[in-house]
Structure formats: structure tokens, C-alpha cells
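Problem: given the chain below (143 residues), write out its structure.
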Amino acid sequence: MDYGTASGPGKPIPPRSKDAVTVLYPHSADIMDKFKAVTGEALPDYAAKIPTLVLNGLVNYLYYGSKPGHFLCAVLTNNLFEAVARSDNDSLAALREIIWLVYNRTPSPSWGDKAKIEAWGEQRKVALREVKDLEAAVGPPVL
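Solution.
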């Protein structure tokens, strides 16, 4: 099934410039950079409908391995009943976009059941420790 884009199944979203994306998203450039670092892709346009706190929680989970809150945990474990019960009005209104983002744009090992969520968190924490150790040994990357 083609879940399509924010404008509906199969309807393409026109490309946006980086400036338009910055205006479109109330989210920080840091969050967008972290999402791209983990997924290899920019945030899709429909992510603008996702509440900032929810998107920040999701990206921090994906990047740092931070334990997600109850609502995101329910989404990540495919527990629709729990997700609806734990959502606030804004999260409930954006539930479709949140699910699209998780299903279509996040690494499949990062969601599915509680064991996968815990394993993802540990894997990300180990990876970040290795980067910090490497930077301590050779210095930060030169840009």
C-alpha cells in the first residue's frame, strides 16, 4: 500500500529549498541533522505536522538511544490502543504522520517490539561512546 505523502497517497510533494524547510519546520536544524545522520534522509515535509516534542523525542531516541516516552514507545511497538490512550490532542491529530515517519523513514531495527527498542537504544549508546573515544584519541573531525 502506498502511504504516499502529506498531500495523500501517490501525490508528490514539490521540493523545497533549505530556507523553506527551515521556515516550514519549527524544529531545530540540530534535530534535522540528527535525523539525517541516522536515516541518511532529510525529514519529509509531512513531518512538519508532528508536534515538536514528539519529533524531538523520536530523533533523540534514534540518535542517542534515549528511552522514548510512553506515547512514542506505544507507537514504536505497534500498540495502537496504547498510543491513542497515551496521546495528547496534538499527537493524536498527527498520529498518521508519526506512523508514516516511523514506518517509512526510520531504520527497521529501531521499532517493532520492546526488545528491539531496548537493543536499538543500547546499540546507539555504544556507537556514540565509540565516536567520543575516537575523538578523544585523535581529536574532533576537521570541517
